[in-house]
Amino acid sequence: MAKRKGIEVSIALSDAVKLTNADVIAAYPITPQTHIVEHLAELVANGELDAAFIPVESEHSAMSACLGSSATGARTFTATAGQGLELMHEVLYVASSMRLPIVMAVANRALSGPLSVWGDHSDVMAVRDTGWIQIFVENGQEAIDHTICAFRIAEDNRVLLPVMVHLDGFHLTHMIEPVTLPEEEDVSRFLPPNRYPLPLDPVKPVAMGDFAPPVIYTEAKWAQEINLRNSKSIILEVWREFEKAFGRKYLPVEHYRSEDAKTLIMTMGSFSETASLAVDSLRQKGESVGQIKLRLWRPFPFKELRDAVKNADTLVILDRALSYGGPGGPVCTEIRAALYNEAKKPKIVSFVGGMGGRDISVAGFEQIITQGMEIARKGSPNEYEIFGVRE
Amino acid sequence: MEKYTVYAPRLIPKKEKFAPGHRACIGCGEALAVRLACKAFNENTVVVNATGCMEIVASQLPYTSWRLPWIHTLFENTAAVASGVEAALKVMKRKGTGPKAAVKVIAIAGDGGTSDIGLQALSGALERGHNFLYICFDNEAYMNTGIQRSSATPFGAATTTSPAGKASIGQFSWKKNMPAIAVAHDIPYVATACPSYPFDMMNKVAKAIAVNGPAYLHVLSVCPTGWRCPGDITVRLGRLAVETGIFPLYEVENGEYKMSVETPHQRPVQDYFKLQGRFRHLSEADVILIQERVKREYEKLVEKAKNGRKSERAKTESRANTDQVSA
């Protein structure tokens, strides 16, 4: 029986990668991802994980080496953060369009400048449209579970898409938390070996990465889009299977005391648990408040989101990234668009905060929620509200 | 092998691993070089191709000229992709999940993809010691995008981004010495080649493949479109590049230089220049300046090769001495 123990989340995540018996890890160090790749390098060096660890010279080459490795049929993992994710940017599109089942942990970090190694979601939002499946986790246990699930989702021959597991830099990566690491044989039973259908193999030569003239580009992109949309049902199937095997249940939109709530706060990642405490506190004060948490960012869970908010009057959304000169937080903007044509929908208030590692306390979330309720009643001249800024 | 001109061609494999029907320009020296290089590859090869002429002419969906497993992803990351393929093959062989045969990874790219935008990825892959061969097919500019200068464009050549004019000689810098950069990585094998010397080139490819570790081959590929010359003098121009000393053919095995084709009596560079539109604007003084530089560089190279021979002899002697001691 798997034991519960206190362990740093980065270490726990790399232990989960070890349990998947990954073949190739190509990575470049960047704060706050470093502990993940350091521990993997150590596992390989000690012979505990039979894999190739490629210490590449940049993140661009990290993702490029992952392309080559995954196209050869190897189970492939990497991790990065912030600037590293940005340097990979163009390579990310190739991974998804070539249908390569790479798994990547992203220790979410702010983008320069000014230079900041601390956490927010600027890096995630910048790679929104790269065609990857993207999942937010909120604690150490979820980081383990979703890393294991990510391989099964990515490598499923009905999916064959790369997956990003987003965990907040420092706020999550560097926390020591009690987690349960599954037993190796249970993971082996849950995660079948990688069977990439058309690998680079001289026995059966394939040409991968041909260029597409206008006559076929749209078809290629549409096939990719359909595939990503269809992956949702397989993601849900994998999470159901995971629940059967390990007893922990995951949904694309998670709920906390939301069923009868008039006001909902929506969060992603590690701030969610703090926001839950604010919900408890406001409930005690008699406010009808609940919370929803976005787990599945791509493919976007339209149905689950619409169902989750249909009975609420107000939806307050906290983004940890700015869309400069734009209509509000990037997640909020998408949700406004997703609800625009609904007959019955809540008023939506956009907040941006928690940038560059700035913490938001329980009291802070209480303030966001109550201010959000007020704005819903009285309106605001702003496209969005910035939280906790000194003017 | 060049001596056995009647017999040698019969030994070359008939099979075209780079099949005809691609859309390279008439007289393309690069397509010729790729085709001949492929004849020295064995069946157990994976080709990683950078964006560039050879990728564009040979891989339009749903067609391909490649009869080998082939992958193209981006422009600047070819060596990194190759390192991923190589690492994957190695670990999967160990675990019994990949191809059973020993598979060689060969990365191919143009001069821009090698000496400019791909230099970092190449340096990383050479330094890490992956078992792969990297071939730079150098046509001395960004020909695929329309003849823009690269760091491999020779001094004085007119391109669309280094045009000759009242205030410009054309390319304002001397050709980057990529083979020397590869040599600086202390890799087992580096060589220059040209398809105008087909046997020399194929032998070098075969030798580079046999190396266990990184190998780098720099192949001059005449480009009639970009060099502004007729398509029927490709092979002749390649010969002239060597005979003038502009593009010497040599090998560097474990750091030891060795000339492949010695040209003690070099032809004047003008013999090479006058056939190409890209050098048409050069003045007599410009040509003299270039001629001097070519001579100097060639002498430096010959000097390195002499030292190589010396140390080769020293090694043989020291081996002989060791043999005596152990005997």
Describe the structure concisely for a colleague.
Helices cover 41% and strands 19% of the residues of chain A. Chain A has 391 residues and is an alpha/beta fold.
Can you put this structure into words, describing what you see?
The complex is a heterodimer of chains A (391) and B (327). Chain A has 13 helices and 16 strands. Chain A has 391 residues and is an alpha/beta fold. Chain A folds into two domains: 243 residues, Rossmann fold; 131 residues, Rossmann fold. Chain A has a seven-stranded mixed beta sheet with strand order 3-2-4-5-7-6-13, with helices on both faces. Chain A has a six-stranded mixed beta sheet with strand order 10-12-11-14-15-16, sandwiched between helices. In chain A, strands 1-8 form a two-stranded antiparallel ribbon. In chain A, helix 7 links the parallel strand 6 and strand 7. In chain A, helix 1 packs across helix 2, helix 7 packs across helix 9 and helix 10 crosses helix 13. The longest helix of chain A is centred in the middle third of the chain and has 33 residues. Chain A starts with a strand and ends in a 5-residue tail after the last strand. The model of chain A has no long low-confidence stretch (mean pLDDT 97). Chain B is of the alpha/beta class. The longest helix of chain B has 43 residues. The C terminus of chain B is likely disordered. At the A-B interface, strand 3, helix 3, helix 5 and strand 9 of A face strand 1, strand 2, helix 4 and helix 6 of B. Strand 9 of chain A pairs parallel with strand 2 of chain B.
